[in-house]
Write a structure and sequence with these properties.
The chain folds into two domains: about 5-160, Rossmann fold; about 180-260, P-loop containing nucleotide triphosphate hydrolases (Rossmann fold), CATH 3.40.50. Helix content is about 25%, strand content about 20%. It has helices at about 15-25, 65-80, 100-110, 125-130, 150-160, 190-200; strands at about 5-10, 40-45, 55, 85-90, 115-120, 140-145, 180-185, 215-225, 225-230, 250-255, 260. The chain has a six-stranded mixed beta sheet, sandwiched between helices. It has a three-stranded mixed beta sheet with strand order 7-9-8, covered by helices on one side. A two-stranded antiparallel ribbon has the order 10-11. It is globular and about 50 Å long. The structure holds guanosine-5'-triphosphate and magnesium ion (MG). Magnesium ion binds near residues 15, 36 and 37.
Length: about 280
């Protein structure tokens, strides 16, 4: 069992960008819009020599309890509650906000080892950005730029000091015998609900809103001595006619659902990964 590190923070601060930098992947969807990530998305960081850890990207905590935003925040809190270390991500350009204050209050109650990561410090005075958050009184604070991958080594060194030798996370293994099953279909047909039923837990956010699932989420399962990997995927939409600004396509996925390629339209810049 590996240590588990959770990325939490308000929407759009760069959690998924940091997740991709630490897992050296493009598994998490990144977009300049709040509320992109929704479900918990697990990956492995192998950048610390001899000390791999599991990392979980989460959706932004937006201060709402209802609807999709509420469900997203509950997933994020669940991730922090099971984690051995929390990376509390804030936006160094925008400075501390009321939402950050709320998240800090909740993290204090949670009382887990926490590292305050001031992101987006590229091209700005990192010391001034850090000073903005001095009133939070956290001893472990550092400045990074996830987009430019600066400050990552310092972050890893600090994380190493706070991580237990072994932790609470199961890893997604590379067992070639594992049967991979992708759940693919139009938006809102019940893919995530089906995955939840099979798992017997509310692992995925299932809602009546089409397009609820965004990242493809892999979950391992063992049943009757056989190993499976269930991959829930974003709903397939028809490609907009005429191309360009139709905004109809969120993400197009290959038929096997193992890898998605960006489609045209609203999220044309999206990135997804392999499982
Ligand atoms: N300049 C700069 N931009 C960044 C940095 N990290 C992320 N961004 C940008 O900030 C935007 C949001 O990034 P995401 O990684 O999707 O943010 P998030 O916290 O995962 O957002 P939600 O999933 O919506 O909560 C994107 O446009 C990123 O390119 C950074 O270090 N510097
Ligand atoms: Mg995100």
């Amino acid at each position: 069992m590996l240590p588990l590190v959770a990325l939490v923070g308000r929407p759009n601060v760069g959690k998924s960008t940091l997740f991709n930098a630490l897992t050296r992947s493009r598994d998490a969807l990144v977009h300049d819009e709040p509320g992109v990530t929704r479900d918990r998305n697990y990956g492995v960081c192998r950048l610390l020599e001899g000390r791999p850890f599991v990392l979980v990207d989460t959706g932004g905590i937006a201060g709402e309890d209802e609807g999709l935003a509420g469900a997203t925040a509950r997933q994020s809190r669940a991730a922090a509650e099971e984690a051995d270390l929390v990376l509390f991500i804030v936006d160094g350009r925008e400075g501390a906000s009321a939402l950050d204050d709320d998240i800090l209050r909740w993290l204090r109650k949670l009382a887990k080892p926490t590292l305050l990561v001031v992101n987006k410090t590229d091209g700005i005075d990192a010391r001034a950005a850090l000073a903005e958050f001095a009133r939070y009184g956290l001893s472990d604070v550092l400045a990074v730029s996830s987009a430019h991958r600066t400050g990552i080594d310092v972050l890893l060194a600090r994380a190493a000091a706070l991580l237990p030798e072994t932790g609470s996370a199961e890893t997604l293994d590379d067992d070639p015998g594992r049967i991979r099953i992708a759940f693919v279909g139009r938006p809102n047909v019940g893919k995530s609900t089906l995955v939840n039923r099979i798992l017997g837990e509310e692992r995925m956010i299932a809602s009546e809103v089409p397009g609820t699932t965004r990242d493809s989420i892999a979950v391992d399962l063992e049943r009757d001595g056989r190993k499976y990997r269930l991959i829930d995927t974003a709903g397939l939409r028809r490609r907009a006619r005429g191309g360009g600004g139709g905004g109809e396509v969120l993400c197009r996925q290959d038929p096997a659902g193992h890898r998605a390629v960006p489609g045209r339209g609203a999220d044309a810049g999206c990135q997804r990964g392999r499982h």
